Amino acid sequence: MMQEEVLRLWHRQDAHFALLLIAIEYYENRHSTLKEKMLWLVEMLEKVVGRIPDRELMFALDAFGNHEKTPFFKDQWPIRYNRKQNIVDLVRNMSWDISFFRTMQTWATSKVNGDFSIPYFLTFDWRLAGMNDIYSCRILLIDDQNERVYSLPQSNFQLQLKDVGCWEAIAPFFSEERIKYRLSRKVSYEELESHCRDAEEKLHSLVYGDGMPDRIVVAGSCA
């Protein structure tokens, strides 16, 4: 398998698990506070995958009802027991959209398209555009030598978490020691795939009250 394809699948699976956690918390603990929801999310992300991505934190704030300007997840996620669009399928499709943004960042450091390549795209998919609006970037810093891309979001998620009284609870997770700890962890693709499969089963049970139907493709496979 080509390296770009491996990265694309990894990005997708990473985003998939984060979205599954957000959906599980959204449906399972409707009466918990925003602080409790965000704290549970960062604890699970660090414990299971060793990553706390900024973009998914912004999505979580939107999903848990903090952003009145972009009620994206509330508009997209089906009402409980509505099987017209299965929640597991919907979250899986969203994960492909998120992974697309990350894949574009890897393209920016690729030598194949020249010494200085800035990928861009045009979409008429309002859902994809809506996801990008939640985490719109002001600056992209491309480190060509180390093949890394750093993004500076338009809105500071730390300030937003402070505004809603959540930052103090999760700030310890962003200390230098905790960041080094997460960087030292290595979770295999197979482990992440297994975690996604378990989370899909839990989410489906929460929303519909039964087991996963056979028609749903397990996490990690290409639809």
Tell me the layout of helices and strands:
Layout: H1 3-28, H2 34-48, H3 54-63, H4 72-76, H5 87-108, H6 126-134, E1 137-143, E2 148-153, H7 157-163, H8 167-170, H9 176-184, H10 189-208
Antiparallel strand pairs: 1-2
Helix pairs in contact: 1-2, 1-3, 1-5, 1-10
Tell me what you see in this structure.
This protein has one domain (3-208). Helices cover 57% and strands 6% of the residues. Helix 1 (3-28) packs antiparallel against helix 2 and helix 1 (3-28) runs parallel beside helix 10 (189-208). It has a two-stranded antiparallel sheet with strand order 1-2. It is mainly α. A hairpin with a 4-residue loop joins strand 1 and strand 2 (148-153). The longest helix has 26 residues, at 3-28. The two termini are 17 Å apart.
Question: Could you tell me how far the N terminus lies from the C terminus, measured between alpha carbons in angstroms?
Answer: 17 Å
Total domains: 1
- Which outline best applies? globular
Question: What's the order of the H and E elements?
Answer: HHHHHHEEHHHH
What do the pLDDT scores average to?
A: 75
Radius of gyration: 17 Å
Oligomer: single chain
Structural class: mainly alpha
User: What fraction strand?
Assistant: 5-15%
Helix proportion: 55-70%
Low-confidence stretches: 214-223
With helices defined by DSSP (H or I, 4 residues minimum), what is the helix count? 10
Count of extended strands: 2
| Largest beta sheet: strand ordering | 1-2
Largest β sheet strand count, sense and barrel closure: 2 strands, antiparallel
